[in-house]
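B., you asked whether I could sanity-check this one before it goes into the benchmark set. Here's the sequence:
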Amino acid sequence: MTAPANRPGRIALVAFPGVRAFDVSVITEVWGVDRTDRGVPAFELHRVADSTADIPLRGGLSLSPDRTLSWLARADLIVVPGLDDHVTPAPEPVLDALRRAHERGTPLAALCGGAFTLAQAGLLDGRRAVTHWNLTGMLAASHPRVTVVPDALFLQEDGIWTSAGTAAGIDLCLHLVRTTYGAEAAATIARSMVTAPFRTGTQAQFIEHPTPRADRDADALAVVTTHALTHLAQPHTVGSLAARAGMSARTFARHFRAATGTTPMRWLITQRLAAAQKLLERTDLALPEVARRAGFGSEVTMRQHFATHMATSPRDYRLAFRVREDADRG
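And here's what the prediction gave me:
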């Protein structure tokens, strides 16, 4: 999603009969609430449908579209909610509008079962996609040309984002804010929603705690993660973290993955990237000092991780978001 700094980002919520009220609420909460007094950029969210007639939602609710499908040509980002009934076909005008939007290069994002809508439009053919873990078999069977990834929170391919169920839709929306407007804007929205500000798309969807020891393990892991977060500048290894938890390295790594869906080192890199983003946005610290405080040790290492995980450099990241911030103040 890209939007000039001198106007709000234009977000389109695509609606039709059968869309899921929860996902509509998530999209509205992220992009439809004015938080400019807390430093969040302004967004222009519109509810877009084939007509402006009210759309019934489950639970006695209804949605009133305020734009028709022609407005999608002006959108910076198009978000498709999930469906109550995942095999419900979307209206052909909606599918055609989504195809044309993708041809124009507009990013598309689908929450949960919204992947079925994109698949109906043919937009996921030959591409990877994710949906709720309980729907992966259905998506693969009904759309065999889609490569269904069973174990991720969200992913992107060719400008098309898909996400897993419920909370993962929030994760994707916050990620889209983060990558366009910066970590601080996403964190401010997350705080107002009382939700986690940063979960990576590669984290597992479905986490089980297989033994009665899970609570004790969780307490030990909480001690370790709290220590790591408050001492990011220090060097950490799986062995040193395991020792703090009172476990062997192998046992610690296994319990950490079971509890978080990722490895200790991947988790640590994610936290260091988030810390570096905030320092780059909020401070004028030199890049070597940002790298030191975030725990990367050197500017070279920090640059490598930014290139791998964010497809940019720390310098370009600071330039993009500090320039936007200055423009907003002017």
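One thing to flag: The longest strand covers residues 43-49. Otherwise nothing jumped out at me.
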